[in-house]
Each structure stands twice: as C-alpha cells, then as structure tokens.
C-alpha cells in the first residue's frame, strides 16, 4: 500500500463507449476519485480501447460525446492511461488511431507529455497486481 | 500479493472469462459467479483452456449460482472448488484486491 491515505486506484475499462453507460460512468467516477487526491491509473483493454479512439462523432446517434473529456484528465492529475497492445492489435488498431492525450508537467517547465502508455498483456497483469483498489467498468 | 478475480458473464457469450484468464497471475484465485458458472462444466469448448490455467490459479465457482442453473458439482471440471457466499467472503479477505471481469 502507498503512503498515508493515498491508495493506488486502477480503473479497468473493457467496453466500447456508446452502446452502454459503462464508459461514461467510469469517467465520472475517475474524476470523483481524482478530487480525493488518490493515485489514479486507467487501463484500457478489450473493447475499452475504443473509448479513446480519435474522431468519435456522436451527433448522429443523439448521445453525449464525452470523448474530449479524456483529453482533460491531465488537468485533474490523471496522467497514467495504460492501453493494452494486444487489445489494439486484435481490433485492427494502432496507437495512431487513438486521441493524443497529454498532461503538462509542472516539474519540467510545463512541458506537454503523453499520458497514454502502451503496455503488453503481461505488463497489464502486473499493473492490476500492483494496485490497491480495482474498479471495473 | 494475490488477486481474487470474479467473472459474471458466460464465456460462450462474452470475452470476460478469456480476458480474466489472460490477466490472472500465479497464485491468483478465479471465482465464477452468476452466468459465468456455465463455464465450469466439463466437456465444453473452453474446458481445456481452464484446465491449463488450473496449473497456476485456483478456480472456484459459486454454489447457489450453479444450483440455480441446474448444474451439479459432479458436472464440473475436476479441481474446480464450489464455495458458498461465506466462502466468497473468505476469498475476498484472503486476497489483496478483488478484480471484477464483467
């Protein structure tokens, strides 16, 4: 466990974004968790990788397009987005199909740095094991 | 420290079980609940895969969910342990974290 009252929270996202409420609910909970100054990481695997796909346009289905919210996560100090390489490949996707998601590093003259980290499946398993609390969506 | 993984979807309908097994590490426990219990039967398309994972993980199934679906302990893949709700709690307490695959 981490120091003090800070715990490592891992939010696992496994569903595509607009067919169910999971992705939006996850995002809401992540933002709430960030407000409590916890150590927050997000994992995108299986169909969850579609949540951060570039070019989402929900105008035609009349539902809220929350995709741009992922790009604001850095402002809430949510800076660790782990994306599973195998899940991308299985769906014919690569990193270039994802939105650029970055944060400003205050310790490095506010340089813009990538929040997305591609990890392989074995590494994703270790990320799960390294967390204190896992919340699945 | 180890993880208790719970799965609640049938492996014949969703990828939750496959994904769970792909991310479970040595010493972890896997508990099938709700519709996932149909995956504990012997002779299914996923039985061999499950048996492979039994080398590194302990696999459990929730008894009341089995009974509700007409499955009997003797229908199960050898080595899968049936637990009741109290057993579910024990598993959650014995592992460092619970990871749900839904």
Automatic annotation (TrEMBL), chain A:
This protein is called what?
A: Sulfurtransferase TusC
Give the keywords, sorted: Transferase
Gene name in the database record: dsrF
**What organism is the protein native to?**
Blastochloris tepida
Q: Which GO terms describe its molecular function?
A: transferase activity
Which residue spans adopt a coiled-coil conformation according to this UniProt entry? none
Pfam families per the UniProt record, alphabetical = DsrE
Keyword Aminoacyl-tRNA synthetase among UniProt keywords? no
Q: Does the keyword Transferase apply?
A: yes
At the top level of its lineage, which domain of life is listed? Answer: Bacteria
Matching entries from InterPro entries are given as: DsrEFH-like, Sulphur_relay_DsrE/F-like, Sulphur_relay_TusC/DsrF
PANTHER family according to UniProt? PROTEIN TUSC
Recorded family membership: Belongs to the DsrF/TusC family.
Q: What is the lineage of its organism?
A: Bacteria, Pseudomonadati, Pseudomonadota, Alphaproteobacteria, Hyphomicrobiales
Automatic annotation (TrEMBL), chain B:
Protein's GO biological process: tRNA wobble position uridine thiolation
> What InterPro entries does UniProt report for this protein, alphabetically?
DsrEFH-like (IPR027396), Sulphur_relay_TusB/DsrH (IPR007215)
SUPFAM superfamilies, alphabetically? DsrEFH-like (SSF75169)
The UniProt entry's GO CC annotations, sorted and at most eight, read: sulfurtransferase complex
Q: Which domain of life is it from?
A: Bacteria
PANTHER family, per database record: PROTEIN TUSB
Q: What is this protein called?
A: Multidrug MFS transporter
